[in-house]
Amino acid sequence: MLRLQTLEALRQCVGGWKNDGLRVAFVPTMGNLHDGHFSLLRLARERADRVVASVFVNPTQFGPGEDFARYPRTPDADAGGLAAAGCDALWLPDVATMYPHGVDAAVRIRVPGVTEILEGAHRPGHFDGVATVVARLFNQVQPDVAVFGRKDYQQLAVIRHMAVDLAFPVEVLAAATRREADGLAMSSRNQYLDAGERRTAATIHAVLQQMRTRALAGQPSECIEADARQALVQAGFVPDYAVLRRPDLSEPAAGEGGARVALIAARLGRTRLIDNLEFDLDNG
Ligand code: PAF
């Protein structure tokens, strides 16, 4: 696996592959890789001839008081895991390469609408930072296809909106959420949890499943959402939201059928966890 630290080296590498007619997939990450990331790599491998992964802990997507400074950084383990997973090139930009005019003078991308609700309402500016860095990464790597996880459901919607709106010639693919044996969605932030919190954390997936069961049974959304919040509070969480939405994250009308996604964001101690569950009211 090549380790690339300059734009020149990256462009030479990917340009060479493209000149040879090879299809290039891209998996952007913030490092501290776990099996959830490696499943993105596997999907990328299936869909392309060469795979580039990036590791960049993006300062612009962390708000004041969030965990940018303590976000786990494990560069050697990440590189070893990526090489073992069949990654061809690891893109390791530094902050000056990503934001040549400095973070404060950086051109920002803002996707309206979908960034103003749910995660966007609770983490103002977060998705501007995500869209801003993903646009740069797309321009740097110039992949044919890029893979993102379904666990970050709203992030995926933001990136899809941006890619279409800015006409990036990149196919955006979504990979299924990987879960621990007790249902907890894999996340780098799980390691902030102490042993007791780790046991409690699986409640999020259980509550999502209850939300799905009750929605399929035709119960009203307001009751399901209120009970989900209460179940989270009883388990020791401070929920930010527990909602049922259409796939585009808009609010469904009462009695309306079709596809749904249940989404939860909740704090457990100092750790904020998110997860979601997709289902269809018409097909179970
Ligand atoms: O999902 C992530 O790890 C990050 O938000 C991403 C897409 C790599 C952008 O920094």
The radius of gyration computed from the alpha-carbon positions, rounded to a whole number of angstroms, is 19 Å
Task: Please give the alpha-carbon distance between the first and last residues.
Answer: 43 Å
Q: Total helix count? A: 10
The number of strands is 9
Q: Which kinds of small molecule does this entry bind, naming each only once? A: pantoate
**Biggest beta sheet summary:** 6 strands, parallel
The best one-word shape is globular
Order of strands in the sheet with most strands? 1-4-3-2-5-6
Question: Structural class of the helix and strand makeup?
Answer: alpha/beta
Low-confidence stretches: none
Query: How confident is the prediction overall: mean pLDDT?
Result: 98
SSE pattern, N- to C-terminal = EHEHEHEHHHEHEHHHEEE
Strand percentage: 15-25%
Helix content: 25-40%
